[in-house]
Every structure is written in C-alpha cells, then in structure tokens.
Write a structure and sequence with these properties.
The structure holds 2 protein chains of 2 kinds.
Chain A (H helix, E strand, L loop, with lengths): L13 H34 L12 H15 L1 H34 L5 H8 L1 H4 L2 H11 L9 H4 L3 H25 L4 H8 L4 H12 L1 H17 L2 H6 L10 H10 L3 H24 L18
Chain B lengths: L1 E10 L2 E10 L4 E5 L6 H9 L4 E8 L2 E2 L10 E4 L11 H11 L6 H12 L14 H13 L5 E5 L7 H18 L2 E6 L2 H7 L2 E6 L2 E6 L15
Parallel strand pairs in B: 3-8, 3-9, 6-7, 7-8
Antiparallel strand pairs in B: 1-2, 1-4, 4-5, 9-10
Helix pairs in contact in B: 2-3, 2-4, 3-4, 4-5
Chain lengths: ~300, ~230
C-alpha cells in the first residue's frame, strides 16, 4: 500500500519563527547545559592520565575513560558499594510500589476523613531537606517501638533501605495517585454492575490499565533511591564494606581527594539511572503528566 | 420489571425527589429529559452506583434498594460505553460470567451474543480499534452476557452518525424482542422514543410524566404510572 504524502503545512510567518527561536534559545541553554554535565564528566575521565598507552593513539581518550571505570571495579570497597546500591535500590523500588499502589488508589478513589491530612503528610519526604529527614529517622528510632529494632537497623544495611524507601515511596505514591486519577472510574463502575466486588474491579479492570504508571513509579523510586545521600549519611552512616552505596562512595572518594574515582563512580551512577529509564520507556512507562507532586487534580 | 417508588437521590447540590415509575416486564421504556435533568443520576441509582436517600427500587421482582451493584441483576451501558480498554472483545463478553463463576458456559454465551449482535469479526480486537457502532454493540453484549433481568442504557446512541444510529436502533429493538429483557433507555432525542418505546417517560423539573403510558396490567392493579 502506498503511503499518502502529508499535505504541505502552511508556511510559518517570520513572527512565528522568531517566537519559536526565542523559546528554543531560552530552553536550549538548560538542555545544552545538562548534556554538557555528562559530557564534561566523560571528558574529564578521557583526558586525565594514569592509563597505559592505547594500542592506537587515536583511541587514547576512550582508553583512559575505560581504564578509569575499570579501576573503580578493581577496588573491593567500590564493588561492595555497587552491589549494595543495586540490591538496596531494587528492594526499595519493590517496597515503594507495595505502599504506593494502595495509597494512590485510596487517595484517588476514596473520600475518607483525614484524606487531606494524609495527602499533606505524603509531601513531607518530598519537601523536607534531606539531612533533616535523616536526623528525623535517627530520632524516631530513639522511641518505642522503633527503639526495639534500633540495633538491627540504625547504621546497618536496613537503614540504607529505610532511608531510600522513606523518600522513594512518597514519590511513587504521588505518581500512582495521579495515574489512577487519569483512569476513568466508569469502567470500574461497569465492572461492579457485571458482578465484581471492588477488589475484583481493582485487580481485573483498574490495575492492568495502571501498568504504565506503575512502571513510571518504579523508575522514579529507583532513581530517587540511587541518588539518596543526605538521609543515608545521617541514618546509615558511610562505613566501607558495610553501609556504603555509590552516592556515599562519591562523597568518600572526594573527601580523600580521589577526584578521578569520584567522577568514574558518578558516570556509573548516570549509566545505571539511564539504563533503568530506557527500560521503563521501552516497556510503556516514562515521565508522563503523572508527576503532579503536591498537585491537586480537579475532580472529574 | 422496573419499579421505583418515592425515590430520592442526591448528587452534590442536585437532587431528584420522590420519583415513582414502573416499567412492566419485557417492555422497552425510554426516559427522556434535557441535559442536566437527572436522567443519568436516576440510572446510576438504579445500578446501585449512587446512594438512595429515600424510596425503593424493585428490579425483576426483587427489592434491590440496599443491594450492591453486583447483586442487582442489571446490565448497564453508560454513555461512553466504558469498554475495558485492555481486554479483547471476547474477554469483555466473558467477563460477567467469569466473575460470577460461570466460566463453563462462557463459550456458548459468547457464541449466542456474537450471533445476536454480529460481533464475529470483532472478537479478537481491542476497543481502541472499534467504530462507534461496533463499540456500542460490544457494550451491549457485555451487559447482556449474564442475562440480566433489566437493561439500563444511558444515551446509548448519542455518539453515532445518522446511518449508524438507524442500524443501532434496529439492533436495540432486535435485542429486546429476542431476549425480552426489560429496558430503560435514557435519551434526549424524541426520535428514539418514536422508534423504540413501548413506554415513554419524561423527566422534567425533577418530575416524571408518562408520554406513552405503559399498557394496562393484565390483572386488577390500577396504579397510575408514573405518579
């Protein structure tokens, strides 16, 4: 079948073109700056020495960068940090979804006393300064019943996950709430008339349609967990081979003056974040309108 | 049959008060009214999707006023059809039987509905690819799958062009004559009343008025309907 040619668009006027050009210049500064951040990291690794001579002189910059990245994996501290980061981010992502899906559903579909308060409390991890959140976690575990588990959690691996989860779950819950808001309630109502309980309508009708939001929530939860630093430092510490994750590795490497390792680990974190983002986008998620953090959607 | 007695329903600031109507078993009733007159609110109350503040609803001979939607024995087609966007047409038709634990008869029932509504070529398609008329037939099939006593249609023909509208009217008439289900069809088009209605009722300023009264009941009850 031959493809029909698209009809010619009406020519844009000079005023329209200059309007778009102004917008592009303003927005472009930011986008170019963001891309520059990543390129600068790579350029730094490519231009700093320390690597043996490459087989081809032209490949020396790439050889330098690869040597720097391989170098961080030679360090057992950083290998441990990398493994803990991947595991803790995965656990945090799963836990965040376990909490975010029910919370998002209740906030989207139910009217109950204190709903506004619950909504406001969910903003706390989003708006609170990260260090304050860490201190608050530390203080919380001074009190019963949290105190009972304090020795097993505070400054231990579970503290890493708890600190990540506290922030990630709030973001995931916001995304799930907006995601459920965007799905018309009518299909669930029809399901009720067809014989469903509310639970069956949720599982059979609503949840399958919320998969893109779930993927988005998981992506954001993962990214937040990966980037978590302040609360981790205060609540879990930065003990090598114990509670160190990649964000704390960057801090520790910087603090001992090893900028090359700090940049190499940063590049690894960027790669990990991009990989998850790409997987999410290819499986139907992404960063849709479902990021109305703290926003209030009009009732339909 | 559909019997509503002294029904009051509130929806925000809007309120329907003291409505009474009766549709005899196996009849096709058309409820007319302007946009915003409360037709859809009344239909949702019959489905159990809106709380009733006073009065009673009897569907198929059972008082369902306090029953959840799942136990009212209604088939409901909302104005936007609300087809399950992630399910094929076949799964939509099987859905009501699957959730009621009657999956064993689903294949036979799907075949019956496919014949009745001419759904054969559509069975493995998703709603996103269906035309307005096709979506309307699928929604009708999904609502009829569990053989409800009452079929509630909320402006089922509103989004159709003239040609599709005429054939959809024929489908509705054929379905009602074949299944003998009691139908309450909400619309704001008089033409649908002329074409389909055994019983016509108008909802105006919160009151129901019969424009085509129901035929007299076979026995002695002389209740004037609607009051």
């Amino acid at each position: 079948m031959s493809r029909r040619a698209a009809p010619p668009r009406p020519a844009a006027s000079a005023a329209d073109l200059s309007f778009r050009a102004i917008l592009a210049v303003i927005g472009g500064f930011y986008v170019v700056g963001l891309a520059g951040l990543l390129l600068a990291d790579l350029a730094y690794l490519a231009t700093t020495g320390g690597a043996p001579a490459a087989p081809l002189a032209a490949l020396q910059p790439a050889w330098n960068a690869a040597h720097a990245l391989a170098g961080v994996f030679a360090d057992p501290n950083i290998r441990h940090s990398f493994a803990l980061t991947i595991v803790s981010c995965l656990v945090t992502t799963v836990l965040s979804l376990v909490v975010a899906v029910p919370l998002g559903y209740l906030l989207s579909r139910s009217r109950f006393p204190g709903r506004g308060l619950v909504d406001a409390i969910l903003d706390i991890p989003i708006v609170l300064p990260p260090l304050v959140l860490g201190i608050s976690l530390l203080i919380l575990f001074q009190f019963w019943p949290f105190r009972l588990a304090s020795r097993q959690i505070v400054f231990q691996v579970p503290a890493v996950i708890l600190a990540q989860f506290t922030v990630s779950a709030a973001f995931a819950a916001r995304i799930m709430r907006v995601g459920f808001d965007q799905i018309d309630t009518r299909q669930e109502q029809v399901a009720l008339t067809l014989g469903c309980t509310q639970a069956r309508a949720f599982w059979s009708v609503l949840l399958p349609q919320a998969v893109p939001s779930i993927v988005t929530a998981a992506t954001i939860a993962w990214a937040r967990a990966l980037g978590e630093f302040g609360p981790l430092l205060v609540f879990a510490g930065a003990t090598r081979m114990k509670t160190e994750v990649l964000s704390t590795t960057v801090f520790l490497e910087l603090s001992i003056g090893n900028l090359r390792n700090a940049v190499a680990v940063s590049v690894l974190m960027v790669a990990a974040a991009l990989a998850v983002l790409l997987i999410a986008r290819s499986s139907g998620g992404g960063m849709p309108e479902a990021t109305g953090f703290g926003g209030r959607r009009a009732a339909r | 049959m559909i019997a509503v007695n002294g029904l009051s329903v509130r929806s925000g600031d809007f309120e329907l008060r003291d409505l009474t109507l009766e549709v005899p078993p196996g009849r096709y009733a058309v409820l007319m009214g302007r946009t915003g007159s409360g037709k859809s609110t009344l239909l949702e109350a019959l489905c159990g999707l809106r709380p009733v503040h006073a009065g009673s609803i009897v569907l198929g001979g059972r008082d369902v006023t306090r029953l959840p939607p799942a136990h009212r024995g209604v088939g409901y087609v909302p104005q936007d059809r609300a087809l399950f966007s992630h399910m094929t047409v076949r799964r939509q038709l099987e859905f009501a039987l699957a959730v009621r634990g009657r999956a064993a008869i689903a294949a036979r029932r799907v075949a019956e509905l496919t014949d009745l509504l001419d759904l054969g070529p559509l069975l493995d398609r998703l709603p996103a690819g269906l035309s307005g008329g096709e979506a309307q037939r699928v929604a009708l099939g999904r609502a009829l799958a569990a053989e409800p006593a009452v079929l509630l249609l909320d402006e089922p023909l509103s989004a159709l062009d003239d040609e599709s509208w005429a054939s959809a009217c024929d489908v509705l008439a054929r379905v009602q004559q074949t299944t003998r289900v009691t139908v309450l069809h909400v619309t704001h088009r008089h033409e649908e009343t002329r074409r389909l209605a055994d019983v016509a009722i108008e909802l105006h300023a919160g009151r129901l008025t019969a424009t085509i009264p129901p035929p007299p009941p076979p026995r002695s009850s002389q209740e004037a309907l609607p009051r």
